Amino acid sequence: MPSYLDEFHAIDNGLVRVTPEQASRFAKEVAGDFNPIHDPDAKRFCVPGDLLFCLVLARYGVSARMAFSFTNMVGAGVGLHFPATDDATLEITDGGERVYLRVERDGEVSRDGALLEGLTKQYAAFSGQNFPHVMVPLMKAQSIMVNPQRPLVFYESMALEFTRLPAEAPTLSFTDATMAVNGKRGDVVLEFALTATGEKVGTGRKKLVISGLRPFEQDVVDDLVSQYDGWKAAYRRYP
What we know:
Blueprint: E1 10-12, E2 15-17, H1 20-30, H2 49-60, E3 62-70, E4 79-80, E5 89-93, E6 99-110, H3 113-128, H4 130-142, E7 144-145, E8 153-162, E9 171-182, E10 185-196, E11 199-210, E12 214-215, H5 218-237
Helix pairs in contact: 2-3, 4-5
């Protein structure tokens, strides 16, 4: 069955491959994420974790309880093996010993195409709004900020838990965000609620890791936000 994700990956000899151009387009056009680490020419380029999450749900469906652990970044040219399994735990690997994503799942499963498309699109869009809307207030409150020359923000884990799987795509809404700082590292947890037909049907959380932290400087952060907004505006004007 055709999916909006078809244009963001390809199957090559049984492996899922995402080109840097596909990864960048997904980040910008689906998630609204302009983190330079997803640019095709980035030195430390990586495929967005949100795209991997979406591909997992498209392949295996959504379970009542799911936990995702991102163990390695997917760089350019990596072919990913999605195992054919109904096990409670599955690993997305390069076909060898390197694990990129570990998934744990339990409970009822839905493979409804409309539900999966709506859920994955909403989650990607929510996730892409982390900077600056959520991250900047958190950094200011902690009097720290990312290195403006190398703003390293990594996706570590996420989880979903439904009290019931809805018949249609649920609405996702942000509920809370916290940051714990340990030296030059910060752990950020974002929480959200899932509702359907006016009823709360589940919750979720996403954990990010920020490295290279330094003392907060309002002018520098303002410049970083302005640069980020400039990237978005320039991309939207690009034919």
